[in-house]
Amino acid sequence: MIYSAIIDLLLASMIYFYGRKHEATKWAVLFLFFAGLGSFSDVAQAPVWHSLFFFILQACTPYGFIMFSIVYSETAIPRVKNIFACALALPIITTLLITPMKPDIQMDFLLLLFWAVPYYLAGCFLVIYAYLKEKNPLKRRNRLITACFIVPPVIMIVVVNHFERAVHTFGSYRYISLFVVIAFAVFIVSAIRFGVLGVRIKFEKQLHDQTIKGIVSGAAMLNHAMKNHITNIDMLTGRLKEHVQNRLHEQADEDIAVIQAETRQMMHMVKRIKKHIEDIEIVEGPASLSDIVAQALLSNRYLLEHKRISVLTDYSLPCNLICDKLHLQEVFANLIRNAVEAVEMDNGMLAIRIHESKKDFLVDFSNNGRGIDKETRAQLFEPFFSTKHHEDNFGLGLTYCYLIMQKHGGSIDVSSQQAGATFSIHLPKTRRA
């Protein structure tokens, strides 16, 4: 087991070094730290240290794994995750209180069958579920690799550690180290070729390259958001000049109000993306989904009018959510601008519909513009990918939308035929205000 301890602690260090910004990664590090530290129980000579390490291995490791799986699968909002983090720790405390620790620990493995084993099995299910529900091809591949790296060793632990110990047979326990070594090899190969759990190993200038990439992509994302608002303001000021010259004061007042709204949105974005090169900050609060869509439409009103695009809206489903209103408005505005660029002058149509499925609230943005082929759809959400081929298109609009939806525990997908496309926003009903 000393080999398992070394490998688990090495994995924890690597994952923390490369991907410590992500919440799921932190729980993965805690899980591996518990497993690695607990594995020293086989070599600890003093009874007190043996008991401590053995308890950590058997009682704390499953807690780290189930919390990693909950966060990794993105099935719970932050408030619910905090409740899980507290509630799922209660069996550890109960086990500690009823387990004799002197002269040597006497762990009740029948008791562990009722809570530790379900933690492991539920965690494996969530890791597999995260793969099955993923729509983005690249992330789906990475989730498959993660499942292959994690699930088999965990199932092996359940069988040869918990079930065999519960019935007092220990013949297969020595093979756990072999499974850990195999899993470590899979992790290293996958991290080099594809990336797994936020780790992508390169053998030259890794830290420098990551820093430069973060700065460039963060700055480009900010530029993309600012570019869209500046385009709107430029068009609005042109119309405002015409209205002033023609003494159309009422229309001029409307243009001024929209310009002020756009500048306020820009200022909020600048303040909130001060740490953009590290991560996107989400500030949640109650908001009406239809109000957010309406504001995104208002900010793009003149782009729609300029192309004479017909807009159809269906807000018949009342929907109040706990969400980040600022970022969701940016997501909707991005999808509206994409629709404007996709449709033809004078013949364009944009339909926006709020509806629901069994698990999600959905917002559909449908246009009658050019269709999107299957190969292009697979790349749409990749950073810097663009079909527009203009120097002022950074290829980050849909990547930004994808990141924001991930932060909300939701998703974005696209469907298209030969003509027209529909982008669908999915927000989980657990966010209902």
Keywords:
433 residues; alpha+beta; two-stranded antiparallel ribbon; 15 helices; 7 strands
Description:
The chain is 62% helix and 11% strand. The protein has helices at residues 2-19, 23-38, 47-73, 78-87, 90-98, 109-133, 137-166, 176-193, 206-245, 249-272, 289-299, 301-306, 325-342, 374-379, 397-407, and strands spanning 285-288, 310-314, 320-323, 349-356, 360-370, 411-416, 419-428. The strands form 2 sheets. The protein has a 5-stranded mixed sheet, with helices on one face. A two-stranded antiparallel sheet has the order 1-3. Strand 4 and strand 5 form a beta hairpin. Helix 2 (23-38) runs antiparallel to helix 3 and helix 3 (47-73) runs parallel beside helix 6.
Task: Note the topology.
Elements: H1 2-19, H2 23-38, H3 47-73, H4 78-87, H5 90-98, H6 109-133, H7 137-166, H8 176-193, H9 206-245, H10 249-272, E1 285-288, H11 289-299, H12 301-306, E2 310-314, E3 320-323, H13 325-342, E4 349-356, E5 360-370, H14 374-379, H15 397-407, E6 411-416, E7 419-428
Parallel strand pairs: 2-4
Antiparallel strand pairs: 1-3, 4-5, 5-7, 6-7
